[in-house]
Every structure is written in C-alpha cells, then in structure tokens.
Amino acid sequence: MTGPEHFKTAQRLLAEAPEQHDQEKERTYVAYAQAHATLAQAAATAQAGGPIFNEDGEFVIGGMTEPQEASWKTVLDPEGTTAE
Fold first, then answer.
1. Distance between CA atoms of residues 64 and 33, nearest Å
2. DSSP of 16-36, one letter per residue?
3. CA distance 38 to 25
4. What is the pLDDT of residues 11-56, one digit of tens each?
C-alpha cells in the first residue's frame, strides 16, 4: 500500500466509524484509521526527505519524484483547487 492509499484508507475508516452504531466497533475503526494515518505520514516523510532515485534511475537527495508528488496531490486535493 502506498502512502496516498494509506491516507485514503484512514479518511474512509474515520468516515465509517460513526456508522457502526457500536462503541467498540467505532473505536476499532478509529484505531485502524490512526494506524493508516501514521503509515501515510511515514511514507510522506520518507519520500520528502530521504535519498531516492528518480524515474531515470538517477540518485536524488531528498524530494519526491513527479509521480510521487502527483499521487499525493491527487489525495490531498482531489478537485485540484490548490493553486500551484
């Protein structure tokens, strides 16, 4: 699962938690959402600051590749409302 996929899953689980109509199930959904949110944050941190290779196989110090950045933008701003 990619960072953006973890982020989407966390959002979905948080939205579905109140629909469970059972406190224990709701807490479970929230706990799973927190775990996915933490994994999304770890992925974003690793991609943004760690050494990576770009799509041409060249070593890059920090920063995201264009596909990685596009994946995050799609999740964080699905309607494309943020100005660049």
1. 25
2. HGGGG-SHHHHHHHHHHHHHH
3. 20
4. 999 999 999 999 999 999 999 999 999 999 888 877 766 556 667 8
27-34, long-range: CB < 8 A, 24+ apart: 33/9, 34/10
Place of tokens 């406190």: 23
Buried b (16+ CB within 10 A) or exposed e, 10-19: beebbeebee
Could you tell me which residues come within 8 angstroms of residue 37 by beta carbon, excluding any fewer than 6 positions away?
6, 7, 10
User: Each residue of 51-83: pLDDT tens digit?
Assistant: 566 678 776 656 677 787 788 888 777 777 765
Task: Give the chain's end-to-end CA distance (angstroms, integer).
Answer: 27
Q: What is the pTM of this model?
A: 0.68
Residue 3 exposed, middle or buried by CB count within 10 Å (0-12, 13-18, 19+): buried
